[in-house]
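job 3f2a | input accepted
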Amino acid sequence: MIDDAQRRNQPTQRSVRQRLASLRLRFADRALEAAFREDRAVHNIGNVRFGFVVGTGLWIGWGILLRRYMLSTHDLDLDARFRFGLFIPTLIVGFALSYTRVFRRYWEWISFVTVVATLVVWFFYSTKILTLPAEYGYVGVILITAFTYTLLRLRFIQVVMTSLVGIALYVPYAFTARYIVDVSEVLATLYLVSFAMLGSLAAYWFERFARELFLRQRELDQERTRSDMLLLNILPQAVVEQLKSSSGERIAQAFDDVSVIFVDAVGSTEQAAASSPEAFADSLDALFRWFDQICERHGLEKIKTVGDAYMAVAGAPVPMANHAEAVIGMAVEILEGPETVRWPSGDPIRVRTGIASGPVVAGVIGVKKFAYDVWGDTANLASRLQEASEADQVLVSQWTTTDLLDRYEFGPVQMLDVRGRGATPVRALLGRHASRNETSVELESS
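job 3f2a | predicted structure (446 res):
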């Protein structure tokens, strides 16, 4: 029987096979293919540069080691001209070009053309060095071809084409050159064909693995993005960033000065009893979506909804200088509420609101269904003011109103007997200041 892990892996494996052409190793989706090419260029450019450096070192090292075995002046001069006048400068130029934008875009084909050109020149060069054995020629072809899949990491099809060029150049020559004995002809053919097959096979699996790894990484990135979006729907972005860097530690912070707002829908119990569950949920969802929009507009952070109550805070988890004005601005918009948000019965949704400012403690609690919450006397006071307010009324702690009297209208100070606190000075928010409204109208008219 197939276990659960195998079942989970099978769809991904099939999708990889479906998206990869079996022999050409190419994604059917052009956008996906272009993304792979771009990703491969970014991650493989270092290998190409390293290949140019190693190739330069090998040309120099082999040249020094083999000079003693070149027994004619003709061979020595020819070797010096080709090795130090063509092969090595080509690699140096290629290394320099690897830092250009053009190379980053066409690095595979530039490298492929460079390798093929090197093969052609090598073939001409090796056939003119007569004092070295025949093995010198086809071993060089094998080494140049090996560079395509070991260091340059070219695509499978390019490695195959390079191998075929090497075979097509050297094998006919090996059987026609008079100084190459029969056994060397056979060895040259066997080595070139064998290494071409092994190299092509290695290149195929290298590229296939790279493409499958790219798909896995892409799918992992998509899942990470999806999980981040889910987290951002649960937690504030600043808290998500803290969680990622906290190594599992609990997050808790003290804030000296924030403003908390509680909004509660009046009469929701009766409306729920008189409506269908779907219609009631739709109305409450429309109300809370509207609150979400106001929160975002004024820079508040939604904390939670409890039944038909909505809680938000300004100044946490990111401190805000004008936190009191932000929550008052939200409350004013709620007072001016839209006519379109209604109960299923058609009655307007009336709310009561409480606002308080002061210190709080905020953090993430729980392991399952964890949440970001705000605690402390300030949060409790805002909740108590919401409970004490009437429909379409906003009760605000006196501390919150201190610096806002010139911009908003408040009722007279009244002493409210708050549970757990006793007599507490509060004001009722009436709306924007009349002079401020007149000024706004004049500015809009002008």
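job 3f2a | Residues 4-226 form one domain.
job 3f2a | closed
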